Amino acid sequence: MKKSIYDTPIFFERYQQLRQNPISMNEVVEKPTMFSLLPDLKDKKVLDLGCGTGVHLARYLELGAEKVVGLDLSELMLQQAETDLSARWQKGPDFSLYCLPMERLNEIAENDFDLVTSSFAFHYIENFPDLLAKISAKMTACGTLIFSQEHPIVTCYKEGYRWEKNEAKQQVAYRLNYYRDEGERDRSWFQQPFKTYHRTMATIVNNLIQGGFQIEQMEEPMLAKQSEWHDEFKDLQHRPPLLFVKASKG
Length: 250
Known about the structure:
Blueprint (H helix, E strand, L loop, with lengths): L8 H11 L5 H12 L8 E5 L5 H8 L4 E6 L2 H14 L5 E6 L13 E6 L9 H11 E12 L1 H4 L7 E3 L5 E4 L8 E7 L2 E7 L2 H10 L2 E7 L22 E8 L1
Parallel strand pairs: 1-2, 1-4, 2-3, 4-5
Antiparallel strand pairs: 5-11, 6-7, 8-9, 10-11
């Protein structure tokens, strides 16, 4: 089984530092938007793909979910999730964790999920239609899928300068040179190489439709005013960093 980049000690340490930062992409953009899309979770069964340290699973339990299941490739992430969830819910709500890539979702024992979620992870998936088929097979007849991923405007980048800048070196336009060229992208974070996959917005939407999903809502959050936020968010005035989709099983 392939290893997770998040099991690299330096990568996991830096990730933890980012998640503990109250002014981060996860806190400012991802979590508020994702949680705003949630349906009523009272007595529901929820699966989170790429669950990380279980932050979203904990929130689902707080909102009344009867059972939550998390799946992640990273052993370090799941160890932290196990520790945190066990400490908060020694008795009561049930949870299960699986160390598997989401492409092997079909191997878990549980079925009939009312809600399947995934945060900031589907851009790591090469075969999106195959994943959607496996998700659909694990859902109830009227189940809901909610996910966020890097926006196609972001995933399209291949090489060169991401931004066009003016004489004062201010960002004025985001380059989309390779938007039409779908497929694998070589990336690096903290000098650690990894791969993501670019799909156009049309491909994402058509894959969902062809997989039997009905799109209910899409979000592309941007910050109109960022003066109160950290400087790293100044480019959110120009383009959305994340795409959010809420869809129901047809």
